[in-house]
Design brief:
The protein is mostly helical and 461 residues long. It folds into three domains: 83 residues, no CATH class; 160 residues, no CATH class; 80 residues, no CATH class. A two-stranded parallel sheet has the order 1-2. 50% of the residues are buried.
Length: 461
């Protein structure tokens, strides 16, 4: 006789979700991970799993990630009454795998995933965010120095400059058009050129560190593009690899920059506790102290949002003020890394708005979203502009001003033209979800935006 899964029932009860809502959330995570066989999960599947039927295939892993996001903490399969499933198999830590091996394998896997979708079923998991202890970071540069070299010749400033130029190209393209298009080309570049340079012969320790830093930034951009495309586990893997390269370059500010991105992703996916741990790590070990003022502001304001979603209001507000001070101290003459070129007053306003939103200050959030929209150069930052307008409309709708929300969302849909972005797509989904109760009420503005959002979902990946 099948035993009822009381552990799973208890966790679902803790989420406050009904079984139909759990099913819908499982479908969303399955779609993100490319697990097509779970796109038809319904309430009846959840009921069967609670009754004691064992989930098949990748279902247990997807269910675990779905419930972990809702509760903001990592869950094990044992906590769900599903211990012994295949996804509980212990695998070798990413932190212990040679960086060069990972660099080549990850790039090839990514290209395969784009061409043939072979790498399906990989759900983003908070378990992959656990950072190594201090000795690992201290020993990273020496591990890189002792790495064997390949048959690729000497590597110097010419190669460093080439990597940085390619990274700049993809970064600017991502800001304008989103992260969906162009990723395959960047993956190919990582495998064909970046990996070759990393295994080269360096004329000096300075050259090695410069190349490793440049490589880390390229891999980071691949991660950010994957994140924007809603390929979250791929993004996490790239961010982890970029962080390893930054550690091997002994580049503390770059490591802080990458940890900030990892915290940003964890917040968006509902992993509040892990996000705060990552954001805290982003300011430790000289990562904040050695950063330029502009980069300090970027790292600091994301930490503010992590504090906000963790419920630490006073610390979040203090972190916002410090980020404002840091950005005010940035000048055009600073010797800044190119990776922070995008972070201007508009970006700070956007992140501040999201922090205040998390704190429940809708008026403050709306004020800062408006500032961000007013200050941003929409032609250069089309993707972010569309996403900001999407958030702004959501706040207006939450305040009960549907007409204002529709006006803002109309602008967001205009900005989405030519943008291929998972986050832009999520904004369109939010529009349709919020407007669904108004579809049959004869409100012209709501009907028009709803129809435009429906059409946008057909073209925005």
């Amino acid at each position: 006789m099948t035993r009822r899964n009381d552990e799973l029932a208890a966790v679902i009860a803790e989420t406050g979700w009904s079984q139909p809502v759990v099913a819908a959330a499982v479908v969303r995570v399955a779609a993100e991970a490319g697990v097509d066989e779970l796109l038809t999960v319904k309430r009846s599947h959840i009921a069967m799993w609670v009754a004691g039927t064992r989930p098949r295939g990748r279902a247990a892993d997807i269910l675990r990630e779905t419930l972990s996001r809702r509760l903001g903490r990592p869950l094990t399969l044992a906590e769900l009454g599903l211990a012994g499933e295949v996804s509980d198999t212990v695998i070798r830590s990413e932190w212990d795998t040679d960086t060069l091996t990972t660099l080549v394998d990850l790039g090839r896997n990514s290209m395969d995933r784009e061409r043939r979708r072979l790498f399906t079923g990989a759900a983003y998991s908070v378990g992959g965010l656990v950072l190594p202890k201090d000795p690992w970071w201290d020993e990273a540069p020496q591990r890189a120095r002792s790495r064997g070299v390949g048959p690729h010749g000497r590597v110097g400033e010419t190669e460093v400059r080439a990597v940085r130029e390619m990274t700049e190209f993809f970064t600017r393209r991502d800001q304008r058009h989103g992260g969906v298009d162009g990723r395959t080309a960047l993956y190919q570049y990582i495998v064909d050129d970046v990996a070759r340079y990393v295994s080269g012969v360096f004329s000096s320790e300075k050259s090695r560190r410069s190349l490793y830093s440049a490589a880390a930034e390229t891999v980071y951009v691949a991660g950010w593009m994957s994140f924007d495309a809603s390929q979250h586990e791929a993004a996490r893997s790239y961010f982890t690899l970029a962080l390893k390269l930054a550690a091997e370059a002994d580049d503390a500010p770059l490591a802080g920059h990458i940890l900030r991105a990892m915290a940003h992703q964890a917040i968006d996916l509902g992993h509040a506790r892990a996000a705060l741990e990552l954001a805290t790590a982003s300011v430790e070990r000289k990562r904040y102290a050695h950063a330029t003022p502009r980069e300090r502001a970027l790292i600091g304001v994301v930490r503010a949002r992590a504090l906000a979603v963790d419920g630490q209001r006073d610390k979040a507000v203090a972190a916002i003020h410090q980020a404002e001070t840091d950005l005010a101290g940035a000048t055009a003459g600073d010797d800044e890394p190119h990776r922070v070129w995008f972070f201007q007053e508009a970006s700070l306003a956007h992140e501040t708005a999201r922090t205040l939103w998390a704190l429940g200050d809708l008026n403050g959030a709306l004020r800062h979203f408006r500032t961000s929209v007013r200050l941003r150069r929409a032609d250069s930052f089309s993707r972010t502009h569309a996403v900001t307008l999407g958030y702004m409309g959501a706040v207006e709708a939450k305040q009960g001003d549907i007409d204002a929300a529709c006006r803002t969302w109309s602008q967001a849909l205009d900005a989405m033209d030519g943008v291929q972005s998972g986050r832009a797509r999520e904004a369109a989904v939010t529009m349709r979800t919020v407007l669904s109760p108004f579809r049959n009420r004869g409100i012209p503005s709501a009907a028009a935006v709803d129809e435009r959002a429906r059409a946008a979902l057909l073209r925005v990946t």
